[in-house]
Amino acid sequence: MGGNQTQIKFILLGITDRPYAQTPLFVLFLLIYIVTLVGNVGIITLVRVSPILHTPMYFLLTHFAFMDICYSTVISPRMLADLLSEDKTISFTACMMQLFTLAFLATVECHLLAMMAYDRHVAICQPLLYVTIISSRVCWQLVASSYLFAFLSAIIYTWCVFGGSFCGPNRIDHFFCDAVPVLKLVCSDTHSTSLLGVSSSLVVLLSYVAIIPTILSINSAEGKRKAFSTCTSHLTTVSIFYGACFFMYLFPSSHSSRGADKWAVVLYTIVTPMLNPLIYSLRNKEVKEFRTRQNGDVGRCSTVC
Known about the structure:
Blueprint: E1 9-12, H1 19-49, H2 56-84, E2 89-91, H3 92-125, H4 130-133, H5 136-162, E3 171-172, H6 179-183, H7 198-216, H8 221-249, H9 258-283, H10 285-304
Parallel strand pairs: 1-3
Antiparallel strand pairs: 1-2
Helix pairs in contact: 1-2, 1-9, 2-3, 2-9, 3-5, 3-7, 3-8, 7-8, 8-9
Keywords: Cell membrane, G-protein coupled receptor, Glycoprotein, Membrane, Olfaction, Receptor, Sensory transduction, Transducer, Transmembrane, Transmembrane helix
GO cellular component, one term: plasma membrane
Function: Odorant receptor.
């Protein structure tokens, strides 16, 4: 690739090169995108209108849901358009901005997952100090710091990817400008990109290292069950998110596994944002209690009417 890099145009090869599969995939991903928007907007609305959900955990969850909406919106509309279009080119600037936005959103999500893990750690290991440690002010400070850190780290990450010289073909074997396929076109050293984003996963790990022994030390089986139930939704989300990420970014891929890599990315960029509202709305007892109250109110109203 010669000349001014800002004039470069990449070609996104997409999720599949089979024409007969593009229309069914368009319908599938469109439905997933709609469900993602409805589900995450529903979670945000539910938390805001329900006093029982005005807790630090659900405050963090609303930000997480908002990140899921943004994350899906950065990827899905472009992917849907490419499935029906023959022109799959994307400019250097647009590709760089897409990666920057995704790096920012992914970093915020990692930090929010770490904050949720810390919230569960304090709730289970230090319940008497929970209100003092996880106050409203602390929540706002943690969220604000995560946005600031994510912005700065996204700038560094994007510069590490796009700051080098491009000497390969302009074909990106992916359905969006992800770091791994873009780095295959870069000539210069890019090892520094592999260290970003590790700290939040360590916070999650260390939190549960402290949580699990505390839960196991509870004498009653009912107490253990209740303690584990407070962590189930978060653990499910963490497992899906980090499992797919680690598969994509920590394990070397071969030419034969490129299709598996793409579907792993689909899992954590498109499917996971759709599943998160379902996980939290179906598993959390507070949401169940709110829905039960709402159903009871509707039942009483219908009886009176």
